[in-house]
Amino acid sequence: MTDTTRKSVIAADNDAVVTETYVDAPPERVFKALTDATELGRWFTNPECPAKFWQMDARPGGRYGYTTEKGSVVVNGANEFECHGEILEFVPERLLVYTWVASWHVDKTRQTVVSWELTPQRGGTHVKVTHSGLAEEEAARKDYSGGWIGMLEMLRKFCETRPRVEDLLSLI
């Protein structure tokens, strides 16, 4: 059995949340799940605040964004969420870094940074997500320390699941 233990650590200076897991899928599969808007819409969502819209222009300087329906999750008084940013670094199958501007932060214009590092490991992928720039976002930082664990679990399940027939047909 493969260890898929997830852990989330808040940096000592309270500026970053670092979360890691193992995904039993190759880095190219995980990277596609992180950079394809259709795939993001299938896994980067939550029944308590379902994604309504995802866009991803996966290239350096490209933009991404998503919005959710009104949900039961409340962070800083928000129960509908909107997030957007710019791709800062893009190294296929290895690294994705983007700014993160979130409607539920105290300062709704503050740019934080999300970095996804993918490392081949034991036939699968070690995934490390670091969300930094959170020193002034206490409520969001606390939410992310649990939220990124849940998102990595959804990513893991999505990437480890066999492709759907419609996904295979789209390759033809």
- Going across the biggest sheet, name each strand in turn: 1-2-8-7-6-5-4-3
> What percentage of amino acids are in beta strands?
35-45%
Q: Estimate the global geometry from the Cα principal axes.
A: globular
Total helix count?
A: 4
Q: Uncertain spans, ≥5 residues at pLDDT below 50?
A: none
> What Rg is obtained from the alpha carbons, in whole angstroms?
16 Å
Q: Count of DSSP E strands?
A: 8
Biggest sheet architecture = 8 strands, antiparallel
The CATH superfamily label of the domain at 7-39 and 89-164 reads: START domain
Architecture of the domain at 7-39 and 89-164, according to CATH? 2-Layer Sandwich
Give the oligomer, counting copies of the same chain as homo and different chains as hetero.
single chain
The SS-based structural class is alpha+beta
CATH first level of the domain at 7-39 and 89-164: Alpha Beta
Short description:
The chain has 172 residues and is an alpha+beta fold.
Task: For this entry, give a set of tags.
172 residues; alpha+beta; Alpha-D-Glucose-1,6-Bisphosphate, Chain A, domain 4; 4 helices; 26% helix
